[in-house]
C-alpha cells in the first residue's frame, strides 16, 4: 500500500466513513459511556486496540477460515482480544474498569468491529487491514473523546476534574444528553461536508 493509500485509508476512518458519525454503528457504548472525558478515552483506546488487532488476525487467517463459519470465527477472535484488553484494564486501570463496567466486554458485540472484519480485513492484506483498523478505531475513539469532553464540560462544568463553574446543565450527562450530543456531532459533520469546495 502506498503512502497516499495509507493516508486515504486513515482519513476514511477518521472522517469520511467514521463508524459512529456516518455508519452509526456501536451506539450503545458510545452513548452510555461518554459521560466523562476519561471514560471516552478509556473505551476509545480499548476499541482501537481490539479493532486493529482483530483486523490483523482476520486478515492473517482468512485463507484458512471456511466461508460457512467465518462470522463465528471473527467473533471468537474479537472475544479473545476483548478478554485480553479487559484483563489489562482490571490489572492496571481498576478505577476506569469499574467506571466502564459492562461496556468493555460489550466491545465483542460492537457491530463496527465485526463489520470491519467482514467488509475489509477478510479481503485485504495484513498491512492494509491494520491501517484500516487504526483509521476506523481512531475515528471511533475520537468521537468517544469529543462526546465525553462535551458532555462533561456542559453537564458538570468540568474537564478531567478541573471545575469551571459551580454546576453544569445536568441534562447533558443524562441519557437524553447523549442523543443530543451525538445529533450535534452528526449535524456538524454533515454541515462541514456540504461546504462548497469539499
Number of helices: 8
Using only C-alpha atoms, the radius of gyration works out to 17 Å
Number of strands: 2
The fraction of residues in strands falls at under 5%
- Coarse shape: globular
Quote the average pLDDT.
89
As laid out across the biggest beta sheet, the strand order is 1-2
Helix-and-strand structural type: mainly alpha
How far apart the termini lie comes to 25 Å
Main sheet overview = 2 strands, antiparallel
Element pattern in H and E: HHHHHHHEEH
Which spans of ≥5 residues are poorly predicted at pLDDT below 50?
A: none
Name the helicity range: 55-70%
Domain count: 1
Describe what is shown at a glance.
Strand 1 and strand 2 (162-163) form a beta hairpin.
Kindly describe this structure.
This protein is mainly α and 198 residues long. It has one domain. It has helices at residues 3-16, 27-33, 37-61, 70-92, 94-100, 111-119, 126-156, 175-193; strands at 158-159, 162-163. It has a two-stranded antiparallel sheet with strand order 1-2. Helix 1 (3-16) packs parallel to helix 7 (126-156), helix 4 crosses helix 5 and helix 4 (70-92) packs across helix 6 (111-119). The relative contact order is 0.19.
Topology (SSEs and partners):
Layout: H1 3-16, H2 27-33, H3 37-61, H4 70-92, H5 94-100, H6 111-119, H7 126-156, E1 158-159, E2 162-163, H8 175-193
Antiparallel strand pairs: 1-2
Helix pairs in contact: 1-7, 3-4, 3-6, 3-7, 4-5, 4-6, 7-8
Amino acid at each position: 500500500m502506498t503512502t497516499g493509500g495509507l493516508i486515504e485509508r486513515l482519513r476514511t476512518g477518521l472522517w469520511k466513513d467514521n463508524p459512529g458519525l456516518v455508519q452509526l454503528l456501536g451506539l450503545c457504548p458510545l452513548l452510555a459511556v461518554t459521560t466523562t472525558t476519561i471514560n471516552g478515552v478509556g473505551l476509545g483506546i480499548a476499541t482501537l486496540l481490539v479493532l486493529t488487532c482483530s483486523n490483523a488476525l482476520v486478515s492473517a487467517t482468512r485463507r484458512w477460515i471456511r466461508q460457512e463459519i467465518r462470522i463465528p470465527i471473527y467473533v471468537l477472535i474479537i472475544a479473545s482480544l476483548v478478554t485480553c484488553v479487559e484483563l489489562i484494564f482490571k490489572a492496571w486501570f481498576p478505577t476506569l474498569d469499574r467506571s466502564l463496567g459492562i461496556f468493555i466486554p460489550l466491545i465483542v458485540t460492537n457491530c463496527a468491529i465485526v463489520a470491519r472484519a467482514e467488509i475489509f480485513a477478510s479481503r485485504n492484506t495484513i498491512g492494509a487491514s491494520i491501517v484500516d483498523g487504526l483509521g476506523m478505531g481512531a475515528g471511533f475513539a475520537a468521537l468517544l473523546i469529543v462526546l465525553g469532553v462535551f458532555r462533561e464540560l456542559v453537564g458538570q462544568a468540568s474537564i478531567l476534574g478541573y471545575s469551571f463553574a459551580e454546576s453544569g446543565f445536568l441534562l447533558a450527562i443524562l441519557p437524553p444528553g447523549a442523543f443530543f450530543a451525538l445529533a450535534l456531532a452528526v449535524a456538524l459533520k454533515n454541515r462541514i461536508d456540504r461546504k462548497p469546495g469539499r
